[in-house]
Amino acid sequence: MATAALVVIGDEILSGKVTDTNTPFLIGELRGLGVRLAEIVVVADDAAAIAEAVRRTAARNEHVFTSGGVGPTHDDVTIVGVAAAFGVPVVRHPRLEEMLRSYYGAQGLAVVERNLRMADVPEGAMLVESDQLTWPVLRARNVYILPGIPEIFRRKFLAIREGFREQPFHLRLVYSVSEEGLIAQHLDAVAAEFPDVALGSYPRWQPAEDGHRVKLTLEGKDPARVEQAAAALTALLGPAHLAQQPA
To answer: Where is 3: in which H helix or E strand?
Structure first.
C-alpha cells in the first residue's frame, strides 16, 4: 500500500495566525486516491527543522508533500531545507528563471534578485508539468514542494493528482450498543485474524439516537477480505452488542 506524508511549514501555522486548510484537503484527496496518509508533521520556518522532517518522512514513505515556505522573503526556507535533507546544493533552474523573467517583463516590471529566488531548486529537482498549470510543480526525489497559499496548493495538487492513484479503499461500518470494554476481546480476535484489514473503534460520549455507543470501521484494499472481516465481527458481537442497522 502506497503511503504519503505531509510536512506543513510555517510559523504562522504553529502560532495560530493562519488556519491550516491544506491538511484536511490533502487528507480527503489522498484517501480518495487510495493512498494512506501515514504522517503529518508541522515545523517552523527553520531550514534545519525542515531538513530533518523531510529526510525522515521521505525515507519511509513513497510520497512526501510540503506545504508553505516557498517565495522571495526571509522566512521562505523550504528549498534550502529540502536541499539539506538530501545533501545537495541549491541551484538556479534555468527554465524557472526564464519563466520568471518573462512573467515580470510582461507585467512591465523589473525583475529583482529576490524574485529570482523562486527559481532556486535543490540540485537534481524536476519540474512536473501539466496543461492545467502555468507554473510547474517542483519535485525533489519523492518530495513534491507546494506553496502554502490554499488556492494555489489545491490547484497544483489537483493538476497532478492522477499520478498518485492506487487501488481504492473498501470500507464497512458496524455499530455497537455496548461500550468498548465489553467488546474489546472480539475486536482483538478480528484484528488478529485479519491483519490486512484496518479495524477502528470510535466511541461516543453519549449514545446516538439509534442507541449505538461505538462506531467500528473495517477498511482495506481487498473488498472480499473486508467483507469477511465484517461478517466475522458481527458474528462475534451478536445481537446483544449490535445496534439495529438501518434498512
So the answer is: strand 3-9
Residue range 140-187, pLDDT digits in tens = 999 999 999 999 999 999 999 999 999 999 999 999 999 999 999 999
Write the DSSP string, 112-181: PHHHHGGGEEETT-EEE--TT-SSPEEEETTEEEE-SSHHHHHHHHHHHGGGG--SPPEEEEEEESS-HH
- Residue 63, classified by CB atoms within 10 Å of its CB into exposed (0-12), middle (13-18) or buried (19+), is buried
Could you tell me which residues are beta bridge partners of residue 57?
none
Amino acid at 109: L
pTM of the complete model: 0.92
Whether residue 1 has pLDDT greater than 90: no
Report whether 241 contacts 182 (CB < 8 A). yes
Q: What is the DSSP letter of 73?
A: S
